[in-house]
Design brief:
The complex is a heterodimer of chains A (102) and B (483).
Chain A: H1 6-26, H2 30-54, H3 59-89
Helix pairs in contact in A: 1-2, 2-3
Chain B: H1 3-8, H2 10-28, H3 32-50, E1 58-60, E2 64-66, H4 68-93, H5 100-118, H6 122-140, H7 147-178, H8 183-192, H9 198-215, H10 223-230, H11 233-257, H12 264-285, H13 291-312, H14 315-342, H15 358-361, H16 363-377, H17 383-397, H18 401-426, H19 441-463, H20 465-481
Helix pairs in contact in B: 2-3, 2-5, 3-4, 3-5, 4-5, 4-11, 4-14, 4-19, 4-20, 5-6, 5-11, 6-7, 6-11, 7-9, 7-10, 10-13, 11-13, 11-14, 12-13, 12-18, 13-14, 13-17, 13-18, 14-16, 14-17, 14-19, 14-20, 16-18, 16-19, 17-19, 19-20
Classes of the chains: A mainly alpha (102), B mainly alpha (483).
């Protein structure tokens, strides 16, 4: 059976990662920024699965489950923060959240 | 997993257990004093179980390893976290918000940092890092009615999640090349081949992004000033010490296990980061009017100094890193402790003007703050001076003249802005009525005692450094033999 070379999978993961990174940098809405981060995390997860498949080990998929779990925890805290921020600022524009001029 | 492993993991288990017990006690009845007592007790018990682990090297394959370096950094993290807890009591007592959950989050963050420094596998590393990070998101925005707190929290969350993604992608690439996620096997793989594969190097570069973010070094430092300013003062102290120190501990373990000092390209990356951090940190600190932001930039510079010792890479280098970590932790805790101590229930005392004439109003507090600032500047008779001297020695020892020159130059720049703050404290106060609600002395006793202890430690280590050096050498003897 012909299997795909590992590089293809890693390339796909790399492209996804860059898409996530670019959209994180150009989006101004905080929810979309959170989504972009999720895309990046999932790209990393995909890379783990590809790497695990290359060595025929379960570790890659185990790591993916860890990543999903962590991403869920992160999003739940993130959404709580976003709610609080919206309550204070009445907008989700990340430029508005710039009291400290950082 | 053997039964014996549990004795070696007791410090971690105590922290886990304590966070659960604390959570249950909050569910039964909210009582700030009880929760505070439980947290302090948990730290003491964890340290008690840590003591007998000295001098062993006990791997718990495949995830963890408990050795001299791990015990040293865990002890440092636990002690630091204990000091942060002590300072937090008075700070949160005067606020209306629900304060009990803070201690649970603090325990969990400490647990994460402890796992981080004893991990020898990417999975353990990742879990430790994320337990630390997710607790920190909540801690930073803990005073949720303050807009700045929320803003700092969301900024840290987005950037930390992004840096975790970088780190994970880097790990995946390294795993794809080597077929293992454990550090010792990875080292075996690297030792078998001559060249470092390109994909591996890319992976390492991505991991550096994640590490650099947590350390807050240039060019990954953008979050530091805002988060330092927005977070409650005790949490800022925690981020500046435990979070950065934990990452430093991991970095040293990873590089020494995989023998990373062989690769000039890796050393070059860290050299550039160190120089950029020292310069940017010190130059940007010059113009700050906000004490928390000033300390943020100063801590960027200090991590740059720390990287010099890390780059030396020999036994002297590790010793210098250990010593400097202790000195830097004491100093930072003391400085933020003073900020927390002076804060009222509306806002933190973070403007330079809050400190005008402090010496005439509160001489003891001003004296401790002065000592901490002098230690940050590296003036003799303080721990900071000995630490900086140690770093200088390790840099000279490996003939990194550029780094040594930058260290000296930057120390001179640094003195200017530390002295500026001290001068403000000694200036004559404008007659301004103190609006601050005076706390009951018993409440601020914990903070006051903690800062007195920190001040004494600072001077003691500065005058008699040999005790600490002997302690570090004793703890790290097996770890350093493997370098």
């Amino acid at each position: 059976m012909n299997t795909l070379p590992m590089e293809y999978g890693l390339l796909l993961a790399g492209i996804l990662f860059v898409i996530g990174l670019v959209s994180l940098l150009i989006r101004r809405n905080i929810i979309f920024m959170l989504i972009s981060v999720e895309i990046m995390l999932n790209a990393a997860g995909l890379a783990f699965i590809v790497a695990g498949a290359r060595w025929a080990q379960p570790e890659g998929q185990v790591m993916f489950i860890f990543i999903i779990t962590m991403a869920a925890a992160e999003v739940s805290v993130g959404l709580a923060l976003i709610l609080q921020l919206y309550h204070n600022l009445k907008t989700l524009d990340s430029d508005a959240a710039n009291l400290m001029h950082g | 997993m053997r039964l014996n492993d549990l004795t070696y993991l007791m410090p971690l288990l105590v922290l886990v257990g304590a966070s659960i017990v604390t959570m249950l006690s909050v569910a039964v009845k909210r009582n700030h004093r009880v929760v505070f007592g439980l947290t302090v007790l948990a730290h003491l018990v964890a340290m008690y179980f840590l003591l007998p682990l000295r001098g062993f090297t006990y791997p718990i394959p495949p995830f963890l390893i408990i050795d001299g370096w791990g015990v040293f950094t865990m002890g440092l993290i636990l002690a630091t976290s204990l000091f942060v807890t002590m300072v937090s009591y008075a700070y949160f007592e005067q606020r209306e918000e629900r304060k009990e959950e803070y201690y649970i989050l603090l325990l969990l963050a400490t647990l994460g940092a402890c796992v981080l420094v004893i991990s020898q596998h990417f999975m353990a590393l990742f879990l430790g890092l994320e337990v630390l990070s997710v607790s920190l998101y909540a801690l930073i925005s803990y005073l949720r009615t303050r807009e700045m707190s929320d803003e700092a929290g969301i900024k840290y969350l987005i950037l930390a999640a992004m840096s975790s993604a970088f780190m994970l992608f880097g790990m995946a690439l390294m795993y794809a090349v080597t077929g293992t996620m454990a550090f010792p096997e990875m080292a075996a793989f690297l030792n078998s081949g001559q060249e470092m594969p390109l994909l591996f190097l890319t992976g390492f570069g991505l991991i550096v992004v994640g590490v650099g973010f947590k350390l807050g070094v240039v060019p990954f430092h953008m979050w530091a000033p805002d988060v330092y300013e927005g977070a409650p003062a005790p949490v800022t102290a925690f981020i500046a010490t435990v979070s950065k120190g934990g990452m430093m501990g991991l970095l040293i373990r990873f590089i020494s296990e995989t023998n990373g000092y062989r690769y000039p390209s890796l050393l070059l990356i860290f050299t550039i980061i160190a120089i950029a951090s020292m310069l940017a940190g010190n130059l940007l600190a010059l113009r700050q009017k906000n004490i928390k932001r000033l300390l943020a930039y100063s801590s960027i510079a200090h991590l740059g100094y720390l990287l010099i010792a890390f780059l030396a890479g020999n036994q002297l280098g590790v010793e210098a890193v250990s010593f400097y970590l202790v000195a830097y932790f004491i100093t930072t805790l003391g400085a933020f402790g003073v900020v927390a101590f002076l804060s009222d229930n509306v806002r933190d005392a973070d403007q330079l003007e809050d400190y005008r004439g402090l010496f005439w109003r509160r001489p003891a507090t001003a004296a401790i703050f002065t000592a901490m600032l002098l230690s940050l500047a590296g003036i003799p008779l303080t721990a900071g001076f000995v630490g900086k001297f140690y770093i200088l020695a390790s840099g000279v020892n490996t003939q990194q003249w550029i780094l040594v020159g930058m260290l000296v130059l930057n120390s001179i720049i640094g003195v200017y802005y530390y002295i500026k703050v001290i001068a403000v404290m000694f200036a004559q106060p404008e007659q301004k009525p103190e609006l601050r609600k005076v706390l009951h002395p018993a409440i601020s006793f914990a903070s006051g005692a903690t800062m007195a202890v920190l001040g004494l430690l600072l001077v003691w280590i500065g005058v008699f450094p040999s005790t600490l050096v002997q302690l570090i050498r004793g703890l790290l003897v097996t770890f350093m033999a493997s370098l």
